[in-house]
Amino acid sequence: MNAPLPDVPEVRVVGLPQLTAGFDLVERLDLAMHLEVHGPLEPMAGERLAALADDVLLRGRGGAGFPFARKLRAVARAAIGRGIRPVVVVNGSEDEPACRKDTVLINRAPHLVLDGALLAAEALGARTLVIGVTRDSTEAAMTTALAERGLTNRRNAALRARVQRNPHRMVTGEASALVRSAEGGPALPPGRKARASDAGVGGAPTLLSNAETFAQLAVAARMGPARYRHTGLRDEPGTVLLTLSGSVARPMVVEAPAGVPLRYVLRLAGAPPLPQGVLTGGYHGRWLGATAAHAAIVSRAALESLGGALGAGAVLPIGPETCPLGEALRVANWLAAESSGQCGPCRLGLPAAAAGLADLLTGGGPTALEALREVLSAVRGRGACKHPDGTASFVESTLAAFADDVAAHVLRGGCGRRTRGVLPLPTAGAPAPGTTSGERLAVDWTLCEGHGLCADVVPELIRLGPDGFPAVADASVPLQLRGRAQRAVRRCPALALRLERTASAGRPALPGPLGRKALDSGRS
């Protein structure tokens, strides 16, 4: 339990393989074996390639699902309008702990990914290709593949191709972060809204998509639209790569036609016959309840109609033996720690959301639930990148999908099940951001004079109310904020602020509602 997924888990296929063709023959398709399995690939003119992407309804497979043809045409228009060569970027970061499909493709079929990227580069007249990765295995696999094709980053090369290694963090895979790192900057979102198709790497129009999208493009170019559309659904043709983990006997990557029943794919991985819920789309995705999961098919539209999400293709069932809210708290803590810390919703909102969920689990009652909903509402739509929205969506979906468990924790103080850690996360080396110090801040209102110094020192736990007096979080102080909480106590000129021990030392918790109502609730 809580074991990180291997870079290259077991791969299974439902029906005939397309992206995973040849995997039954060798562990890695080098260039010679790749051509033996898939055959040669002829270049295409720009509009013809866009028409192909239109015909097969190709959408990005990294999570957002943006139509690839529209992105291709937008880059071409911007490049022609400005008289500048565009850039092609392959996003192979895949830093979410529950996703491995792109990592599998890059490790085992790197030339299929390169086929699609080179098709796009040729069609656009690009002279720069960047492959962004964050793992040792993907860096080595793609570096070897470029060498096998004779592609280099030398100045005199017709196409300069290079592998861009970035830190292994959730926000690294965000498009603007990858563009920024390819320019030599930090692999963090820049905090401004900009479309890569207009101005990406070096200010040039940039076609950026994930590894599976380029691999799908290469498969469609070889098969042709008519044959490609024979697999899958009318409105979502082709196959889908899914990563299955959570409460399964064997974590795996599955290639399946769009439209296959989700319960069949779950059975392949040895999931419980009746999971209490299935997380779809990964840790920025949404939960399906047991009934919806049983009825669902693998399709972007079908999953969304049931309240789920295809997202980056991660599928995580959980069995009846674990507390779903406890599992969600572990993920929320990790997501808060993965913040780039560049905007308020990330730096303050995500720890507060993890904190609110922790308070809900540890006896916070209706007040904690109300405060958590307020935090999520404040986070949504205000971040510098998609990380705050994705995290808020995950927590909101948890509350909706497991309403009975929420009621049990709110009204009875718990659901009676312990958290088993079935959702994969990196091995923790330090306390999670929601772990409490076992202390809480308290104000002696007979002494407080409203100086407000405490709110400047630790705004995550103390804010000034409309009357200028502090509103203090009614929850345990997280370990990572304990030092600043002590500093706030020392700086209070009226000696009105103090740290008090709570009965929940060592349990995960974070701020509940910031207001006098919480202080008057009768809870210690």
From TrEMBL:
**Pfam families, per the entry:** Complex1_51K (PF01512), Fer4_15 (PF13459), NADH_4Fe-4S (PF10589)
UniProt-listed InterPro entries:
ComplexI_51kDa_subunit, Nuo51_FMN-bd, Nuo51_FMN-bd_sf, Nuop51_4Fe4S-bd, Nuop51_4Fe4S-bd_sf
Protein keywords? 4Fe-4S, Flavoprotein, FMN, Iron, Iron-sulfur, Metal-binding
Q: Which SMART domains match?
A: NADH_4Fe-4S
Output this protein's name: NADH-ubiquinone oxidoreductase-F iron-sulfur binding region domain-containing protein
Asked if the record carries the keyword Metal-binding, the reply is yes
Name the family: Belongs to the complex I 51 kDa subunit family.
| Parts forming coiled coils | none
Q: Which PANTHER family match?
A: NADH DEHYDROGENASE [UBIQUINONE] FLAVOPROTEIN 1, MITOCHONDRIAL, NADH-UBIQUINONE OXIDOREDUCTASE FLAVOPROTEIN 1 NDUFV1
